[in-house]
Amino acid sequence: MDATLSLSKAASLIADPSRSAMLWSLLGGESRPASELAMIANISPQTASNHLKLLLDGGFLTAEAIGRNRFYKLRTHTVGVALESIAATITRTPGGLAQQSAPELVFARTCYDHLAGELAVALLNRLRQRKHIRESGRNYRLSATGEKFFADLAIDCAESAGRRRRFAYPCLDWSQRVPHLGGALGAAVLEWLFHSKAVARQRGSRAVRVTHSGRKALKDVFAIELNRLGTTILS
Questions:
Q1: What is the pTM (predicted TM-score) of this model?
Q2: Which fold has domain 3-75?
């Protein structure tokens, strides 16, 4: 299919408010049943089924049968990145998406399998300030100090680099209008944050919260402090 026709088809699928609501709810990488997606989009189960079929056929979603239900999720991480990037254009106008979103989502959330929001931008800025990562065209590469830094955290960068995806790149953040860390390295950092219990998921949302021990970890490891409102301060 011609690239312009593919783009037009993708845009028409996203343009429907019900379909965009269902896609947006899956941006954290989770799976949801059709009944839940129907409630999120405020439509009937039959209408939701029709919309989900279109998204499946369009390559946006994948489905897995578990018991009597089918659970839907984004087909790949690149779908999530594309949706976040499109949303980033909305925030450039007054009353944009960032101003309409819950503060906890703006502060920290999952962008499919990596961290997004104000905290994620602060983490990327710290890695760049310390020269742990350097720009390499449209991607990032590790410096010698970066290799040691991540090795000390027991993050296997060689394994992450071997995955069939981009290793590290600037992913445009829709709420901050500047990049956060995307790619396999971004996913590995978020996994480390979860594993170390520095952050935790908020039930029913893709927002994540910083734990009490996480505040100390962010300060000790990344030299990032949070004020009482939860905003980040680079120390």
A1: 0.73
A2: Arc Repressor Mutant, subunit A (1.10.10)
